Amino acid sequence: xxxxxxxxxxxxxxxxxxxxxxxxxxxxxxxxxxxxxxxxxxxxxxxxxxxxxxxxxxxxxxxxxxxxxxxxxxxxxxxxxxxxxxxxxxxxxxxxxxxxxxxxxxxxxxxxxxxxxxxxxxxxxxxxxxxxxxxxxxxxxxxxxxxxxxxxxxxxxxxxxxxxxxxxxxxxxxxxxxxxxxxxxxxxxxxxxxxxxxxxxxxxxxxxxxxxxxxxxxxxxxxxxxxxxxxxxxxxxxxxxxxxxxxxxxxxxxxxxxxxxxxxxxxxxxxxxxxxxxxxxxxxxxxxxxx
Length: 291
Hints:
Blueprint: H1 18-33, H2 37-61, H3 63-69, H4 81-112, H5 116-120, H6 126-142, H7 146-159, H8 169-195, H9 200-225, H10 235-247, H11 261-282
Helix pairs in contact: 1-4, 1-6, 2-3, 2-4, 2-7, 4-8, 4-9, 4-10, 6-8, 7-8, 8-9, 8-10, 8-11
């Protein structure tokens, strides 16, 4: 039968569920994230500190091994809130490095190749597209943040010669909450900035600049004006203070430079809302070209 004799009509078969469609995007986004050897190298490097912390916990709970390895010096390694604050900080800032590398690979290629109209012409919504990319990045960052942190917490609870979990439960909850909060902020910010930059290398630099340039400006403004409120655009300072409160670790900054928890939460919420607005404005099924 000739082609022009065919009667075309809409597909009337069974459709897959929306979750399944999002899962397809997540699967391919995750595969894209791991398609580079640099990703593997960065991932391995991000997990190396966990091995060091694991050895530290072992030495702290095994006096014989500590005496042998530390040349019989009676050095005491304290496994407390300060120790896990170091764990959380190191893993979360390494997560920033991985976000700057992985996030542009998830979105910038689609933007640069004008693939969004094709993707969104399928039965997938803009929300589903962003959700698929977000889940892939969220799960990727989880492997180097809260999962190893909680693993170290569990190992300390197992190896401690005295009951330890009951009196340090706040640390475990703080590790989980602090990591999840930081992952959400990084994922939304990384995807939002990557959606506005077509070149992956430039997008990586923009993600770093979005964190550290305002931090420098805020530090200078606080020093010149002699106020602590300039630190509200200093993300490293805000997150450090918030993590310390979540874990119950000692504050390392002066009392005059301590930011209220409510103000920090409001700024982070505003940052997430701005990232969502950027994604909503950029992720479109069509691109308007003005001639």
